[in-house]
Amino acid sequence: MKISIIGIGRVGSSTAFAIVNKALVEELVLIDMNKNLAEGEALDLLHASSFHKRTVIRAGDYEDITGSNIIIITAGAAQKPGETRLDLVLKNAKIIQEISQNIKKYAPNSIVINITNPVDVMSYVAWKTTGFESNRVIGTGTILDTARLRALIGYNCGISPMSIHAYIIGEHGDSELAVWSSAMIGGVPITNFCEDCPFEQKCNLQLEEIFEEVKNSAYKIIEKKGATNYGIASATAALAEAIIKNEGRVFTPSVLVDNVYIGYPAIINKDGIERIVNISLNEEENEKFEVSKNIIKEYIEKINI
Ligand SMILES: NC(=O)C1=CN([C@@H]2O[C@H](COP(=O)(O)OP(=O)(O)OC[C@H]3O[C@@H](n4cnc5c(N)ncnc54)[C@H](O)[C@@H]3O)[C@@H](O)[C@H]2O)C=CC1
Ligand SMILES: CC(=O)C(=O)O
């Protein structure tokens, strides 16, 4: 198995590290416009790989992505404190177009995972520019937001986040929404879960407060440390693992729904998106999802691709 990562900044290098630690591939190619950076990261990661699996890790040019099973895109501008993801749209669209042309040329059979923000709009750009079937162009969508939600609920309830079945869908951004109507913990609707709380100090899960914290996580972290990298790196490594191991696992990637890329539950297997899972939404959730979809549509129209 071979993965290439384009963009080896904070997110790209952390993603490479997560992939090395999962021992997913025999070959990992790192590409960045800053060649020294890619070379330095490749060398450092090669040393790390000796604790896991014999892996060829090298910096390269676009010719070197040939034969990749998966290409991960993280190149481009990141938010500065106070900026929204959508503010990056014009800067990053050109970069994603150029990268996608190279992917089409050198790795026409690969599965593309796009991380670069605004992730829904940029995944659409990658899909249009590569001309690949939509199952082979996947955005990380709201996988990270869903992980944040589960982590916070798990922390509050003293439960593994993996046992919490709750999803964030929509734009990976300010218009995303939590699907509380079908959220469950151990088969119990999340809205009833506090009834059996064993703790003396009950927190009475404040779902809207938790959602606001999830939605604003990136702003908070960027304010404090300048970027987010570990959460998205783990999310992307898990997504790549689901493809490589043909897991049939449900994530909330950015996928094609009504001609827009948007965060939505989907099953991931060796072909990328196996299929979308039609989650049931109540009226309010459905309205919010439509609003979110329209925001993404508006930004896709702005870049006129
Ligand atoms: N989807 C998600 O959940 C998340 C998305 N992101 C996004 O990931 C992207 C990267 O973020 P960071 O790694 O923090 O930024 P960074 O600035 O640390 O790294 C970006 C890298 O891209 C490289 N680059 C820029 N243009 C390039 C080109 N044309 N070809 C090759 N390399 C190029 C730069 O040299 C730099 O090393 C941003 O758009 C950010 O908003 C970040 C975290 C989570
Ligand atoms: C930066 C970003 O998109 C995030 O951490 O959610």
UniProtKB/TrEMBL annotation:
Claim: Ubl conjugation is one of the keywords in the record: no
Going by the entry's taxonomy, the superkingdom of the source organism is recorded as Bacteria
Q: Which CDD domains match?
A: LDH_2
Family matches, as Gene3D superfamilies: Lactate dehydrogenase/glycoside hydrolase, family 4, C-terminal, NAD(P)-binding Rossmann-like Domain
Q: Locate the residues binding substrate.
A: Q79, R85, N117, P118, V119, D120, D145, T146, A147, R148, T228
> Pathway of this protein?
Fermentation; pyruvate fermentation to lactate; (S)-lactate from pyruvate: step 1/1
Catalyses: (S)-lactate + NAD(+) = pyruvate + NADH + H(+)
- UniProt xrefs under InterPro entries: L-lactate/malate_DH, L-lactate_DH, L-lactate_DH_AS, Lactate/malate_DH_C, Lactate/malate_DH_N, Lactate_DH/Glyco_Ohase_4_C, NAD(P)-bd_dom_sf
Residues noted as binding beta-D-fructose 1,6-bisphosphate in the record, renumbered to the chain: R150, H165
Coiled-coil regions listed = none
Q: Where would I find the Lactate/malate dehydrogenase C-terminal domain in this sequence?
A: 142-303
One GO BP annotation here?
lactate metabolic process
Key words, A-Z: Allosteric enzyme, Cytoplasm, NAD, Oxidoreductase, Phosphoprotein
The GO cellular component terms are:
cytoplasm
* Regulation of protein activity: Allosterically activated by fructose 1,6-bisphosphate (FBP).
Subunit architecture:
Homotetramer.
Stated name of the protein = L-lactate dehydrogenase
Gene designation: ldh
